[in-house]
């Protein structure tokens, strides 16, 4: 296999990994994420109001936090990868509309997140896996005030906990 073909296969495998992440989340099939993340991966969802924690804490947190949304879709694209042997870094764009119930429980509202994922990947016996992931928030549309306040307060709490 030529070096160009090997690099193309790696790129396709990394794109497939990003798509598997999105499909597992949207199907609410949390155990599928075990084939996406390394067991000791570090994931930082704090840019959108989530937690920054090891994968072992992220997995149950995702199930709990996403249960508040009636539906959601993660559309991944604009893949950029830097591959060096069995290590890689990448940036993946995510368009993420999420349907939530209105605060008083009557009707729904769609909140849209535009996110960049900044990832570090490692190739092992099982193939490529995400070793670390950090969100960068690009934009939000339709976020209700209560959600913005909650995100702000949670960010302040996390900052205080990091300072000790």
Automatic annotation (TrEMBL):
<feature type="domain" description="SnoaL-like">
    <location>
        <begin position="7"/>
        <end position="134"/>
    </location>
</feature>
<dbReference type="InterPro" id="IPR032710">
    <property type="entry name" value="NTF2-like_dom_sf"/>
</dbReference>
<protein>
    <recommendedName>
        <fullName>SnoaL-like domain-containing protein</fullName>
    </recommendedName>
</protein>
<dbReference type="Pfam" id="PF13577">
    <property type="entry name" value="SnoaL_4"/>
</dbReference>
<dbReference type="InterPro" id="IPR037401">
    <property type="entry name" value="SnoaL-like"/>
</dbReference>
């Amino acid at each position: 296999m030529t070096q160009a073909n090997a690099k193309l296969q790696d790129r396709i495998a990394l794109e497939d990994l990003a798509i598997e992440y999105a499909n597992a989340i949207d199907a609410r099939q949390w155990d599928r994420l075990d084939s996406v993340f390394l067991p000791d991966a570090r994931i930082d969802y704090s840019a959108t109001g989530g937690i920054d924690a090891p994968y072992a804490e992220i997995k149950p947190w995702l199930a709990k936090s996403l249960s508040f949304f009636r539906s959601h879709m993660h559309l991944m694209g604009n893949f950029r990868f830097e591959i060096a042997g069995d290590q890689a870094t990448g940036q993946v764009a995510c368009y993420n509309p999420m349907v939530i119930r209105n605060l008083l429980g009557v009707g729904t509202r769609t909140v849209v997140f535009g996110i960049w994922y900044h990832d570090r990947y490692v190739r092992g016996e099982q193939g490529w896996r995400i070793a670390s992931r950090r969100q960068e928030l690009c934009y939000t549309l339709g976020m209700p005030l209560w959600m913005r306040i909650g995100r702000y307060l949670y960010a302040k709490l996390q900052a205080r906990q990091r300072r000790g």
